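Quick start: what a row looks like.
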Amino acid sequence: MIASGDQREYWDRVAPTAVFTLPLDVPRLRRFVDPAARVLDYGCGYGRQLAELTRLGYCDLTGVDASAAMVKRAREQLPGVPIDVCETYPAPHPEASFDAILLSAVLTCIVCDEEQRALIAELGRMLRPGGVLLLSDFLLHSDARNLARYESSTDDCETYGVFEIEGGALLRHHRLEWILTLTEAFEPVVLEPFAARTMNGNHATGVSFIGRKPDGHLHARRMS
């Protein structure tokens, strides 16, 4: 996880037992990302998706996470994959280093708009022209439980959709319009809500966004 502000203590504490749940969209992954592609899993946690990518035949993989305990667990499970602690920007990778970048349930750990903008800009820097960003995260919910959590939040950023979970971490659910605003520098090729579960097993709605970094100039935005 890449956490908003300094929530690394929480993620370090839960690292040994955390179970992340957003699914990897394998058919679309295969469609947009060649097995020989250079792939970065940003906010890789304990390496769940890196392990799945390895099983699928992807061999040029890199992972980064802000939590040293998550990285330790990931390295133990995937000794052949370079996985590093990355707490600040810029990340330790040159411009245009990767053909594809995965960002799974990372925005939910970053509650402030400007921090999210900075992250997406950093991912754009590391992605080659024509490369793809595969983003999945949680959308706002309208059930009574979540509405009460959103209304009771007192986060410093005053962002609607932020809530506190047991253990003290702040998380965020997102408006679909905000995901599009946040990723407006990319040419969108997929935008699709899907049914999901949170790491605590609750029903949720996720969104899958796949965007391509413009190759030389911004193309007209189109959806498929």
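That is the whole record. The two ends are 29 Å apart (CA to CA). The chain has a mean pLDDT of 90.
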